[in-house]
Amino acid sequence: MKKIALAVALIGTMSAASAQVYVAGNLGQARIDVDCSDTVSCDKSDTGYKLTAGYQLNPLVALEASYIDFGKVKARVIESGINVDVKGESSGFLLAAALRHNITPEVSLVGRVGLAMLKSKVTASAFGFSDSESYNSTKPYLGLGAEYALNKQLRLTVGADFTDAKVEGETVSVRLLSAGVQYAF
């Protein structure tokens, strides 16, 4: 019984010693995979970003909360002979567990799994008039990344974030390929 208590105390001490708060910012190429088959023009890619606050529970596991913006998709359709400009956007919050695997003392691979709570908005406009609709969705979220430690506090990061969003009753894939920095306090 004493050995079990000692093991639990050691694990608790190791977790407390490695607990650390960090923040990160990433910027990159976002894509909202809408169906562009009935459009005159369509651009599914835009600049996107992600802002993250994390809590490193131990060297391998962290909990993260992020705000992510997947940018905008722009399209033009012809409806009853009228050009209609359509813009769609998707952004929201991610809650995830981040699992790290150290390749070297400086290089880590990161896998993230969690939930994405997104709000998507579609706006159609023609002749100076516009109409918009918003859609909320909660979907599974996956992320992959790599980190390079410049020092104990500062890391360079690259990542790929994947989830789905609800747009006009359909589910579309959204993703962000990005690079950024992470700072640990």
TrEMBL record:
<protein>
    <submittedName>
        <fullName>Opacity protein-like surface antigen</fullName>
    </submittedName>
</protein>
<dbReference type="GO" id="GO:0009279">
    <property type="term" value="C:cell outer membrane"/>
</dbReference>
<keyword id="KW-0732">Signal</keyword>
<feature type="signal peptide">
    <location>
        <begin position="1"/>
        <end position="19"/>
    </location>
</feature>
<dbReference type="InterPro" id="IPR011250">
    <property type="entry name" value="OMP/PagP_B-barrel"/>
</dbReference>
<feature type="domain" description="Outer membrane protein beta-barrel">
    <location>
        <begin position="5"/>
        <end position="185"/>
    </location>
</feature>
<dbReference type="InterPro" id="IPR027385">
    <property type="entry name" value="Beta-barrel_OMP"/>
</dbReference>
<dbReference type="Pfam" id="PF13505">
    <property type="entry name" value="OMP_b-brl"/>
</dbReference>
